[in-house]
Amino acid sequence: MRDLCIFLDAGHGGVDKNGNYTTAPSKQFQHTQGTFHNGRWFYEGVFNRIITDIVAHKLRNLGISYLIVSHDYVDTPLAQRVDMANWYHRNYKPGIFISNHANASNGRARGYEIYTSPGKTPSDDIADLHWKNVRDLLGNRITMRSDLSDGHYDKEAGFFVLTRTAMPAILIEHLFFDNYDDAMLLMDDNVVDLFAEATIRTVIQWLSR
After folding, report:
1. pLDDT in the model for residue 4
2. Cα angle 79-117-15, degrees, rounded to a multiple of 5
3. What are φ and ψ of residue 11, in 5° steps?
4. pLDDT in tens, 107-116
5. CB-based contacts of 118, cutoff 8 Å, min separation 6
6. Is the distance from CB of 161 to CB of 99 less than 8 angstroms?
7. Burial of 18: CB neighbours in 10 Å, binned 0-12, 13-18, 19+
8. Distance from C-alpha of 186 to C-alpha of 192, rounded to nearest angstrom
9. Rounded to whole angstroms, how far apart are CA atoms 47 and 36?
10. Best exposed site among 18, 35, 65, 88 by fewest CB in 10 Å?
11. C-alpha span between 1 and 208 (Å, rounded)
């Protein structure tokens, strides 16, 4: 198995030491029922950190190198996160970049998506591995959203963390947090653990190539 570093990014900001959510208003949603991160408020940045920390814990138990490039709660600039990953990629160990998110739309959309940069790149192969692992572990419980127009399951976008990273990079949208049913799934410890487990399987498969 190759000796690579997994660069982990928890998208956006979290909750600071005073209990304040530090990221954009669009990265939170108040539901009319249920209990989330702050009463009925779902905070995407908090979820992103929960799943990133679970993935990091699993990687540590396996002895796989990783580096979390996001702050515990500060919404650090994307350029700072990418610069950190690129520096360690060039000066410590080469690796892959995984950015964790949850999606939002109109309150009705549901499902899981994975993004890579436009065009044919090695990231497409990582995305295919991961899409299949999520499908195998959670496909009977969630909606799987893909774009097979180019023969791969990923969707393509010019997101900064996908186009400015020096290594293969994927951005994962773990369901829609502004949809009540999806949001409740994202509060289910077993569902979140299975999402994290899918990431671990993807990493192991990629490192074993």
Report:
1. 97
2. 45
3. -60, 145
4. 999 999 999 9
5. 156, 157, 158
6. yes
7. exposed
8. 6
9. 10
10. 18
11. 4
Strands 95-103 and 113-116: unpaired
Q: What is the mean pLDDT of the chain?
A: 97
Antiparallel, parallel or unpaired: β 5-10 and 95-103: parallel
Treating both helix axes as pointing N-terminal to C-terminal, what angle do 189-207 and 44-62 enclose, rounded to 10 degrees? 50
Domain ranges for the chain = 5-207
Token pair of 200 as six digits:
């671990």
Q: Tell the residue number behind the tokens 């999520």, with chain if given.
A: 134
User: How confident is the model over 39-57, as pLDDT tens digits?
Assistant: 999 999 999 999 999 999 9
**Hey, what amino acid is at 17?**
K
Q: Which CATH superfamily is domain 5-207 in?
A: Zn-dependent exopeptidases (3.40.630.40)
Query: Per-residue pLDDT averaged across 97-113, rounded?
Result: 97
% pLDDT > 90, the chain: 97
59 token code pair: 């990687």
